[in-house]
Design brief:
By secondary structure, the chain is α/β, with parallel strands linked by helices. It is built from 13 helices and twelve strands. Helix 4 packs across helix 6. Bound molecules: flavin mononucleotide (FMN).
C-alpha cells in the first residue's frame, strides 16, 4: 500500500451555488442555491465528514442553471460561516488576471486561517467568453494559458521577488503582502483542476496539486491517474486525485435505483441536448478525443459531470464498498453531489461514512 492509500479518504461536496440543483431534471429537488441554505449545508457537511466544498463557476445560464452566485465571493462567505471546511473557489484563466486572483486568495486565506483553495477551470462553455467579449482560445491554448496561470500564482504566493515571463502573463519583482497562510505540508493554497483530455492530464502532472476526474468507472479513473502520474514522476511531483460521483443512498437498493430512474425519466430533455452540444468545445474538439463528455450518453449528461457513471447508487453498504474500490485504484478524494442536499448529506454522514471508515481500518489491518 502506498502512503496515500493508508490515509483516510477525503470527501468534498459540490456547492449548489447555481439554481436547479446538480441534475438537469424536473424531479422535485429540495436543494436551494441561496446563501441561507448553503450556510446550513456547509456547517452540516463539516460535521458529517466533509473536509472540502467545491463552488461552481458559471457566468450565464446554461442547461437550466438560470441563476448563478459568483464562485469566489460565495466561497468566502462559506469560509467565514464555517470553522474547518476548506472551500475551493472555481476560476477561469482568461477572465481573471492571475495576480488579482492570487491577491484575492491570499486575503481569503488570511481571513479563514488557511482554508482557501482554487479550482482552475479551463473552460468548455464558449458563450461565456464571447458574450463577455473575451476571445475563445482553441483547446490546447486554453490549457497552455491555464498552466502559466498556475505557475504564476504559485510563484507569487511563495516568492518575495516573484518573477514570471510567459506568453500570456508577466511578473516583475513582485512581493505579495501578506502571503497566504503557509504551514506544515502546505506551502501555499491548494490548486485543483478538472478536465479529462490529454492536455488536462499533462497540465495536472506538471503543475496542479489535485486532479479532478469527471464521473467514471474505477478502470477509467485508474487510467487517468496512471497518465497524470507518469507526467508527475518526470517532474518529480506528487499529484492527488479526486473523482466526481452523484450519490444516491437509500435503505434498499430498489429505492435508490427508483430515484435514479425518476431523475432520468424527468430529465429536462431540451436542456440536456443543449448541454451535449455545448460541451463539444471540451476535449472532443481535440485530435485525441479524450476529453470530458466525449463518450457520455444521454442519461450520463443528466448529471452534468457524469456523476452517475461512478455508480454510488444503492445501499450504504454497497456504496461504501464501491468507494473503497476507487481508493484501491489511487483515488484520494470523493467529490459528491446529491439530490436533496441537507437530507442526503446527513444520511451519508450517519450511514455511509462509518462503513467506509470500517472498511479502511480493515484494509489497514490486512497490510500491517
Ligand atoms: C470536478 C470538476 C469541476 C469543474 N467545475 C467547473 C466549473 O465550476 N465551471 C466550469 O465552467 N467548468 C468546470 N469544470 C470543467 C473543466 O474545468 C474543463 O473545462 C472541462 O473539464 C473540459 O475539460 P477537457 O476538455 O480537458 O476534458 C469542472 C470539471 C471537473 C472535473
Amino acid at each position: 500500500m502506498n502512503a496515500s492509500a493508508s490515509e483516510p479518504l477525503k470527501f468534498a461536496y459540490w456547492v449548489p451555488n447555481v439554481s436547479g440543483g446538480l441534475v438537469v431534471s424536473k424531479i422535485e429537488q429540495r436543494t436551494d442555491w441561496g446563501y441561507d441554505y448553503n450556510k446550513r449545508l456547509a456547517r452540516l457537511a463539516e460535521d458529517n465528514g466533509f473536509e472540502y466544498a467545491l463552488s461552481q463557476v458559471r457566468y450565464i445560464a446554461s442547461y437550466g442553471a438560470a441563476y448563478q452566485h459568483e464562485s469566489t465571493s460565495f466561497s468566502l462567505a462559506l469560509l467565514l460561516a464555517t470553522e474547518r471546511l476548506k472551500v475551493i473557489a472555481a476560476i477561469h484563466p482568461g477572465l481573471w488576471h492571475p495576480g488579482v486572483l492570487a491577491k484575492w486568495v491570499a486575503t481569503a486565506d488570511q481571513l479563514s486561517g488557511g482554508r482557501a483553495a482554487v479550482n482552475v477551470v479551463s473552460g468548455w462553455f464558449k458563450d461565456e467568453f464571447t458574450k463577455l467579449g473575451e476571445p475563445w482560445l482553441e483547446h490546447g491554448e486554453r490549457y497552455r494559458r491555464s498552466e502559466e496561470f498556475i505557475r504564476y500564482v504559485k510563484e507569487i504566493w511563495t516568492s518575495e521577488h516573484a518573477e514570471f515571463s510567459g506568453d500570456f502573463y508577466r511578473l516583475h519583482d513582485f512581493d505579495l503582502k501578506p502571503k497566504p497562510v503557509a504551514g506544515e505540508g502546505r506551502a501555499h493554497p491548494e490548486v485543483f483542476q478538472g478536465g479529462n483530455s490529454i492536455d488536462a492530464r499533462g497540465m495536472a502532472g506538471r503543475v496542479s496539486d489535485w486532479y479532478f476526474a469527471n464521473g467514471n468507472s474505477p478502470e477509467g479513473v485508474e487510467a487517468q491517474i496512471r497518465d497524470v502520474r507518469e507526467v508527475a514522476q518526470v517532474h518529480g511531483r506528487t499529484v492527488r486525485f479526486g473523482v466526481n460521483g452523484f450519490l444516491i443512498a437509500r435503505d434498499t437498493e430498489a429505492e435508490a435505483r427508483e430515484v435514479l430512474r425518476e431523475i432520468i425519466d424527468k430529465a429536462d430533455r431540451e436542456a440536456v441536448a443543449g448541454f451535449g452540444a455545448a460541451v463539444k468545445q471540451a476535449g472532443q474538439s481535440t485530435g485525441d478525443k479524450t476529453g470530458m463528455w466525449q463518450d457520455s450518453e444521454f442519461a450520463d449528461l443528466v448529471q452534468y459531470n457524469d456523476g452517475f457513471r461512478t455508480g454510488l447508487i444503492g445501499t450504504p453498504e454497497q456504496i461504501a464498498h464501491r468507494i473503497i474500490e476507487y481508493k484501491r485504484r489511487g483515488v484520494n478524494l470523493l467529490l459528491l453531489g446529491f439530490l436533496h442536499y441537507l437530507e442526503d448529506v446527513a444520511y451519508f454522514g450517519e450511514h455511509v461514512l462509518p462503513i467506509v471508515r470500517e472498511l479502511e481500518a480493515a484494509e489497514r489491518e490486512k497490510v500491517s
